[in-house]
Structure formats: structure tokens, C-alpha cells
Design goal:
Length: 219
């Protein structure tokens, strides 16, 4: 009987120990599983926060880039509008100058008459040089700048020249005409030809610049 009680007590102790161990193991497993879930959840949130951080940065950069592009486009539009206004104003001013210039030319009847005399006398000089008749050319040229048709032509040049380019051609004409007179007086045929071509070319360019090229006969 004593042995039976002893065995029953030992069995109960063993079962109690086994159950306690089993319960502790299960509790440990549950705690471990909870820790793993908590870590996974924390990792998932970290990844989500990191992803959101990248997205926020990307959107911020995109917005800044778009704002910069819009700002550049707006500035370009303003500059283009300014350029258009300047171009329009320049066109208006050029048109106004052409109208004023044409009015001057239309009223310059006397000056155009002087220039027509210039064309006529230069033609006579050219014909004489072509015929190797330098004395005849000399009679038309006279003393050059003191000859009446040369003086009246320069009066017209002064009245109708309105730009530096036109004044330059006038200077070239007078310089070439002086060389022509000198060459003719020296009976130098070749130099006379060169000087005549230079003076005639300068007058033609001046007439083109002033708008008189089609209004004078013989050019």
C-alpha cells in the first residue's frame, strides 16, 4: 500500500513537471512568434516610411523642376514679347523715314535737275575717253571742282545725302573725279579710264542708296 502511494505521488510530480515544461515551451513559442511578427511589422513600416520618403522627395524635385521650367518659359515669353515690340517699333520708324525721304526726293526738283546735268556731262566725258579723245574730255571736265556742273552736283549731294554710306560715296566720287581731271590733263589714257569708272560707279551707288537710281536718265 505504501509503495502504491509512493508511485502515485511520483507520477503526479512527473506529470506536473511535464505539463509545466510543455506550457513554458508553448509560452516561449508564442512569445517568439509575437516578437517575429512585431519585427516583421516594424520592418514593413520602415520600408513603407522609406518608400514614402523617396516619393515625397521625388515629388518635391519634380515640382521644383516644373516651377523652374514654368519660370523659364514665362521669362522667355516676356523677352519674346519685348523683342516683338522692339521689332514693330523699328519697322514703324523705318517706314516713317522712308515716307519722309520720299517726300524730300519728290520735292527736290531743282536738285534732280543738277544731277541730271551730272549724268549728261559724265556721259560726254566717257564717250571722249572711249574715243581716245582726252582733250575733248578735258573741255567738259574743266578744272574739276570749280566747274559749274560739278559744283551744282555737289550742292545736290549735300541736300539729298542722309546717311554715312551716302556721304562716303560722295567723297569717293569727288576723289575719283579729281583723279580723272589730273589723268586727263596728263594725257594718261589708262589712268583716265580707271578714274572715270571709279567716279561713275560711286555716283551709281549713291543714286541707289538714295532711291534716285530709277529717277535719273542715263544711269
Amino acid at each position: 500500500m505504501a509503495k502504491s502511494l509512493l508511485c502515485s505521488s511520483a507520477l503526479n510530480s512527473f506529470l506536473s513537471s511535464t505539463l509545466s515544461s510543455s506550457t513554458s515551451s508553448k509560452n516561449n513559442q508564442i512569445a517568439c512568434s509575437a516578437n517575429i511578427k512585431n519585427q516583421s511589422s516594424a520592418l514593413s513600416w520602415n520600408r513603407r516610411e522609406l518608400s514614402l520618403g523617396f516619393m515625397s522627395t521625388f515629388l518635391a524635385v519634380g515640382l521644383v523642376g516644373n516651377n523652374d521650367r514654368r519660370s523659364r518659359d514665362a521669362n522667355a515669353a516676356i523677352l519674346e514679347a519685348d523683342d516683338d515690340e522692339e521689332l514693330l517699333e523699328k519697322v514703324k520708324q523705318d517706314r516713317k523715314k522712308r515716307i519722309e525721304r520720299q517726300a524730300v526726293l519728290n520735292s527736290a526738283v531743282k536738285e534732280k535737275g543738277y544731277l541730271q546735268d551730272l549724268v549728261y556731262n559724265l556721259s560726254k566725258v566717257g564717250q571722249a575717253i572711249e574715243n581716245n579723245d582726252l582733250p575733248a574730255a578735258g573741255l567738259v571736265l574743266g578744272n574739276g571742282s570749280d566747274t559749274e556742273w560739278v559744283k551744282t552736283a555737289n550742292f545736290a549731294f549735300t541736300k539729298l545725302s542722309a546717311s554715312p554710306e551716302e556721304n562716303t560715296e560722295v567723297e569717293t566720287f569727288n576723289s575719283s573725279l579729281a583723279s580723272l581731271v589730273t589723268s586727263v590733263n596728263k594725257n594718261d589714257l589708262e589712268s583716265s579710264k580707271l578714274a572715270f569708272v571709279s567716279s561713275a560707279s560711286a555716283f551709281e551707288k549713291w543714286s541707289s542708296l538714295t532711291g534716285l537710281l530709277g529717277q535719273l536718265k542715263g544711269i
